[in-house]
């Protein structure tokens, strides 16, 4: 009987990945992204808000929430957290280090950039809300403030680290209920930096250059990861 010819593996044979290895490497690279997307979808379904996370861009809610933190949010009327409670309300829930709900709102004067601040109390149209406000957070009398008397029903708000109500400092008018997009549940330190950096890049150079830059970084990172995984797999197979 003849003997089977022995084949000595060449360098090209050793380095050429098989289709199954390529598929496994690709699946390994896509799995983390798919897992993150799945978690985001599940959280959004529970929270009733999209996106279910917001990145903090300022220190106005320090020390509990710092710049670069990621805040988990929910729809305002989502069970069991329905409604909006102000910090002066009896039995107000504790949110992010203080009493009262912390909400995400976008007044017309903010150029579309949302604000994450705490609700102090609701007001009615025509009300002199300074009469029941904390005097230390009001700079001036009602007649000296643009937002007083209240031009419409809504809420007075403030940042925990700021020295005035938003409506006293001119940061926002009385917040209409329809301006409130979500309310905060909890925060995760430092997980929002990527979003903060991307938003800053968009503001400086525009959407297209930022997208190209992020895409290039992702492609290089993915290529390096695939190469590393391939090398590790080959070493284990030797």
Name a few traits of the molecule.
Umud Fragment, subunit A, 2 domains, six-stranded antiparallel sheet, two-stranded antiparallel sheet, 5 helices, 8 strands, globular
Please characterize this protein's 3D structure:
- The protein is of the alpha+beta class.
- The protein folds into 2 domains: 53-191, Umud Fragment, subunit A, CATH 2.10.109; 192-233, no CATH class.
- It is 34% helix and 16% strand.
- A 6-stranded antiparallel sheet has the order 1-2-8-5-6-7.
Which blocks of ≥5 consecutive residues have pLDDT under 50? Answer: 2-15, 29-50, 218-225
User: What's the count of strands?
Assistant: 8
Name the strands of the widest sheet in spatial order: 1-2-8-5-6-7
Tally of separate helices:
5
Radius of gyration from CA coordinates: 27 Å
Task: Return the average pLDDT rounded to an integer.
Answer: 75
Number of structural domains:
2
Write a short abstract of this structure.
This protein is of the alpha+beta class. It has helices spanning 11-15, 19-47, 166-169, 193-205, 207-237, and strands at residues 53-55, 70-74, 94-95, 98-99, 102-105, 115-123, 154-158, 180-188.
Element layout with pairings:
Blueprint (H helix, E strand, L loop, with lengths): L10 H5 L3 H29 L5 E3 L14 E5 L19 E2 L2 E2 L2 E4 L9 E9 L30 E5 L7 H4 L10 E9 L4 H13 L1 H31 L1
Antiparallel strand pairs: 1-2, 2-8, 3-4, 5-6, 5-8, 6-7
């Amino acid at each position: 009987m003849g003997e089977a010819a022995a084949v000595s593996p060449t360098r090209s044979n050793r380095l050429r990945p098989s289709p199954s290895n390529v598929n496994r490497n690709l699946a390994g690279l896509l799995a983390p992204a798919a897992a993150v997307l799945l978690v985001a979808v599940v959280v959004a379904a529970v929270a009733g808000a999209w996106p279910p996370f917001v990145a903090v861009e300022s220190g106005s809610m320090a020390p509990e929430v710092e710049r670069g933190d990621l805040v988990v949010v929910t729809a305002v009327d989502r069970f069991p957290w329905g409604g909006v409670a102000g910090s002066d309300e009896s039995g107000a829930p504790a949110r992010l280090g203080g009493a009262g709900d912390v909400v995400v709102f976008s007044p017309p004067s903010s150029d579309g950039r949302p604000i994450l601040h705490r609700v102090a109390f609701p007001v009615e149209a025509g009300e002199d809300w300074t009469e029941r406000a904390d005097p230390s957070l009001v700079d001036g009398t009602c007649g000296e403030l643009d937002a007083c008397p209240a031009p419409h029903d809504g809420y007075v708000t403030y940042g925990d680290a700021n020295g005035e109500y938003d409506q006293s400092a001119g940061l926002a008018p009385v917040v209409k209920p329809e301006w409130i997009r979500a309310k905060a549940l909890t925060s995760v330190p430092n997980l929002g930096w990527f979003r903060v950096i991307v938003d800053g890049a968009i503001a400086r150079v525009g959407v297209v250059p930022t997208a190209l830059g992020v895409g290039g970084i992702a492609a290089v990172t993915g290529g390096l990861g695939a190469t590393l995984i391939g090398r590790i797999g080959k070493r284990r197979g030797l």
